[in-house]
């Protein structure tokens, strides 16, 4: 079933506001629970809040994307424009495949126009394929500091 233009709202991308925290945390937990149901992401809500606040205090930007009718938080991205480090990109399960991830990644690349780097879990093939479609290449390997899972460092560079 498709909605006509009168029933949908144009997506809205803006900086995070304090009032966004509850929706951000719920969306983050739902997205990760869909990918790794064996991990208790509810227990990591405090970690995410502290991580994002720390990164923002150091100059990172958190952008929230709202989509649907009525507008609801569809996803968010946290990127440091100085270093190009993308710490978080998250799209809610209800918005997967709707182009929200592409919009968030385009916004991140626009904020850090030279280079964007990120870590992705090595067993998260859906995410790896998404990044590769966006022009990212694998440049290294590591491990997630919280879970110990193997990670792949990926990088996007602007076309010269």
From TrEMBL:
Domain of life: Bacteria
N-acetyltransferase domain span: 11-159
Keyword field: Acyltransferase, Transferase
GO terms, molecular function: acyltransferase activity, transferring groups other than amino-acyl groups
Transmembrane segments: none
InterPro entries from the UniProt entry: Acyl_CoA_acyltransferase, Bact_Acetyltransf, GNAT_dom
UniProt keyword Repeat present: no
Protein name in UniProt: Acetyltransferase
The organism's taxonomic lineage, starting at the top: Bacteria, Pseudomonadati, Pseudomonadota, Alphaproteobacteria, Hyphomicrobiales
């Amino acid at each position: 079933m498709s909605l006509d233009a009168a029933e949908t709202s144009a997506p809205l991308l803006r900086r995070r506001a304090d009032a966004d925290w509850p929706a951000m945390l719920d969306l983050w937990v739902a997205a990760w629970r869909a990918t790794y149901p064996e991990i208790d992401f509810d227990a990591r809500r405090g970690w995410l809040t502290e991580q994002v606040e720390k990164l923002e205090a150091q100059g990172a930007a958190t952008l929230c994307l709202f989509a649907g009718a009525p507008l609801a938080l569809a996803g968010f991205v946290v990127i440091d424009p100085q270093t190009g480090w993308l710490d978080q990109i998250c799209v809610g399960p209800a918005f997967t495949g709707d182009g929200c991830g592409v919009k968030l990644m385009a916004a991140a690349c626009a904020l850090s126009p030279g280079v964007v780097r990120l870590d992705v879990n090595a067993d998260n093939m859906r995410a790896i394929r998404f990044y590769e479609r966006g022009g990212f290449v694998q440049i290294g390997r590591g491990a997630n500091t919280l879970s110990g899972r193997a990670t792949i460092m990926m990088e996007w560079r602007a076309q010269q």
